[in-house]
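Action item from last meeting closed. Structure (107 res):
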């Protein structure tokens, strides 16, 4: 019981780490743009993509960007970027987003 209160306070304060304050995404461009979690909060989700590429983390990030462009997404957010069990092969997955509803009503 002696450690219950400090541990409870520590756990409750850790919850604020997962709270994200929404931020506006950048203006839509000709190509899909990578955004952060805080910028994706109010955007409509279009789907997800993944890729595995031999090379470096940059190689697989370029593949994700190209696939996001090809799918017609306005924004994308990489949610996983890991080296696979095969050395030198990288895996990434991303969530695709469309333009915000506020941006659509202004146009």
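Sequence:
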């Amino acid at each position: 019981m002696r450690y219950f209160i400090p541990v409870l306070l520590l756990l409750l304060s850790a919850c604020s780490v997962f709270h994200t304050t929404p931020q506006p995404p950048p203006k839509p461009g000709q190509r899909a743009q990578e955004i952060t979690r805080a910028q994706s909060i109010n955007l409509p989700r279009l789907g997800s993509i993944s890729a595995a590429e031999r090379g470096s983390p940059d190689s697989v990030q370029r593949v994700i960007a190209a696939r996001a462009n090809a799918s017609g997404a306005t924004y994308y957010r990489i949610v996983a970027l890991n080296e696979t069990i095969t050395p030198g092969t990288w895996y990434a997955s991303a969530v695709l987003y469309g333009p915000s509803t506020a941006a659509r009503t202004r146009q």
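Note appended to the action item: The radius of gyration is 18 Å.
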